[in-house]
Amino acid sequence: MTTQNFELMPHALTTLAEDERLFRDSVYQFADREIRPLVREMDEQAKISKTLLHKLFDLGVMGIEIPESYGGSGARFFHAVLAVEALSRVDPSIGVLVDVQNTLVINALMRWGTDDIKRHYLTKCASGTIGAYALSEAGSGSDAFALATRAAEDAGEWILNGRKLWITNGNEADLFIVFANVKPDAGYRGITAFLVERGFAGFTVGKKEDKLGIRASSTCELLLEDCRVPRANVLGEAGKGYKVAIETLNEGRIGIGAQMIGLAQGALDHAIKYTKERQQFGKAIADFQAVQHQIARAATELEAARLMVYNAARLRDAGQPFLTEAAMCKIFSSEVAERVTSLAVNLYGGYGFVKDYPVEKLYRDAKIGQIYEGTSNLQLQTIAKQIIG
Ligand SMILES: Cc1cc2nc3c(=O)[nH]c(=O)nc-3n(C[C@H](O)[C@H](O)[C@H](O)COP(=O)(O)OP(=O)(O)OC[C@H]3O[C@@H](n4cnc5c(N)ncnc54)[C@H](O)[C@@H]3O)c2cc1C
After folding, report:
1. What is the whole-number distance in angstroms between the Cα of residue 270 and the centre of ligand 1?
2. Per-residue pLDDT tens digits for 162-171
3. What are the Cα distances from residue 373, in Å, to 22, 127, 144, 215?
4. DSSP 11
5. In the annotation, is 303 catalytic?
6. What 3-state DSSP class applies to 348?
7. Is the CB of 377 under 6 A from ligand 1?
8. Which atom of ligand 1 is nearest to the CA of 209?
9. What is the structure's pLDDT at 5?
10. Which of 371, 380, 382, 385 for mutating ligand 1's site (highest number of atoms within 8 Å of CB)?
11. What would the DSSP string read from start to end of 106-168?
12. pLDDT class for 8, splitting at 50, 70, 90?
């Protein structure tokens, strides 16, 4: 088989193109060098280091799909998945920061933004502006389209009133995609996406949640009190915000799958290293077949989850339907992440239960995968609808 023919052969899902491999490796090396030393402190202080935020922009992971003409990396969605996976292997809080920026905010701007919006906001996102995606509210989570935030027109501007809850990147973001209903009588057909800047009058970032996991990632309430938004800052059409939300979240959940396989890999790496070092009964615990089998099973499950995540991402980049695959990869990878991190804690024994070792954090971090960007029950609902009808 010649090399030229190989190019025409179908590739294994985990076979990365040269640019993908170099990109993934550079992100992982960065995570190892720049993030790993800060993980514990950021988790304890529930805060992401400011210096690190700047370095993420320099690395090129905050504008992965943004065209080079706007200052971005001009890469594909699959690269974003690789970046989120590589970062989450070290710290899933940084993984989700980068995930929201790329798979939700930039993704929505690229697909739904006018030329002016793209020129203005994509350039900002590529060069230092962090984005957040504000759909959920106290009374509307799974039932997202029951949102109570309202928008009304006044003198050529939109006036937004309401409260958003659980907004990732709330503390770091300067740009917020806020969903509000402009025509409540029309139900979900009134939902509209607005681009709100932190400095807009009537906009405040409220309380930050104190969480079980991904503690360094900020999760905040947003308050909109007669918040004035220029007419040009509607993303997509008024009344079509439900499409913006559905379509970006369908893609975003592949990113959550990437976060989950990254963190599961991180936990498995720790567990393998530790079990080779830890001696009991006169030998390394990795020499016990029971332990070997547990690790082998975890690696097998993780491989399956990675194939699902990569396949969903490759389908998306190929412009093929991926809705079912995205839901499947999120539910499966989040369950695998919970099992693998739990095993890692078990294999560390008592040391797995204390904060001096890294696996208890990954165990806490894994839980969120079954909750945000659509709970597991909602993913099952999507899958069932596609395959049963
Ligand atoms: C750390 C964190 C970060 C987040 N980041 C963001 C963000 O950046 N932007 C944003 O907009 N939101 C964000 N969210 C919100 C998140 O998407 C919601 O929490 C999630 O969608 C679930 O909504 P809920 O919490 O209201 O739970 P509920 O919808 O009240 O669900 C509670 C339980 O009921 C089940 N349930 C609900 N409806 C059904 C049904 N029809 N059939 C079967 N079971 C059902 C659910 O599966 C779940 O087990 C974040 C949440 C957290 C915790």
Report:
1. 31
2. 999 999 999 9
3. 29, 26, 10, 17
4. P
5. no
6. helix
7. yes
8. 1
9. 54
10. 371
11. IHHHHHH--HHHIIIIIHHHHHT--EEEE---SS-SSSGGG---EEEEETTEEEEEEEEEEEE
12. low
What's the CA-to-centroid distance between 145 and ligand 1, angstroms?
12
Token pair, residue 42, equals 């950021």
Quick one: which atom of ligand 1 is closest to the CA of 140?
A: 26
> Which of 90, 96, 102 is CA-nearest to residue 34?
90
Report the sign of the C-alpha dihedral through residues 212, 214, 217, 220, in that order: negative
The residue-averaged pLDDT of 344-359 equals: 98
133 close to ligand 1 (CB < 6 Angstrom):
yes
**Looking at residue 183, what is its pLDDT?**
98
- CB 45 near ligand 1, within 6 Å: no
pLDDT at residue 303 is higher than 80 = yes
- Report if pTM > 0.90: yes
pLDDT exceeds cutoff 60 at 2: no
Q: Please give the structure tokens belonging to residue 359.
A: 């696996």
**H or E element at residue 39:** helix 39-45
340 exposure class (CB count in 10 Å sphere: 0-12, 13-18, 19+): buried
Distance 221 CA to ligand 1 centre (A): 15
Q: How confident is the model at residue 241 (pLDDT cuts 50, 70, 90)?
A: very high
